[in-house]
Amino acid sequence: MLMNERTCICGKMAKFNIGTIDFSVGKTSIVIHNLPHFSCEFCEYVSFDPEVNVDRALRYAYQNGLKEIDFKKKGEVSMITYKIDVADELKREIEQAIEDKVDEIADGEQFTVICGGKAICGTRSGDIVVIERIVEKIL
Ligand SMILES: [Zn+2]
User: Fold this and answer.
1) 9 CA to centre of ligand 1 in angstroms
2) Which sign does the torsion angle of CA 121, 125, 130, 132 carry?
3) Domain with CATH 3.10.20.860 in the chain
4) Which fold would CATH assign to domain 5-70?
5) Is the pTM of this model over 0.70?
6) From ligand 1's centre to the CA of 37, what distance in Å?
7) 17 C-alpha to center of ligand 1: Å?
8) How far is the CA of 99 from the centre of ligand 1 (A)?
9) If pLDDT is split at 50, 70 and 90, which confidence band does 11 have?
10) What is the reported pLDDT for 17?
11) Which of 51, 74, 77, 101 sits in a 20 to 30 Å window from 131, CA-based?
């Protein structure tokens, strides 16, 4: 269970939020969306709960050349990431479609889900799903 507040390094209270945080890994900047964190409005220091594995997410993004990832912990899929540009509205639909299908998607295999008339192609690797391609359905 996550707490709503914790004491910041400056002595004030840092508040719990779920949002977007920018990181730098070497010379690469990586953005993590939907990341649970504590932020202090006095000194702007950001910290994380030990169960929020930021390092793993950053390592994964860096190794796969992803500049932006979505940090989620829902069911078996803890993270859905995109190798392509996807509108936020479509991302929500894709995430819903994948959550519904996650039991049918084998680990380490490519899959396709149909979502809003489009074929969404991706690969699952453990609890991380990478969306690689969106094919407009041809009628
Ligand atoms: Zn502070």
Assistant:
1) 6
2) negative
3) 5-70
4) Ubiquitin-like (UB roll) (3.10.20)
5) no
6) 13
7) 14
8) 37
9) very high
10) 93
11) 51
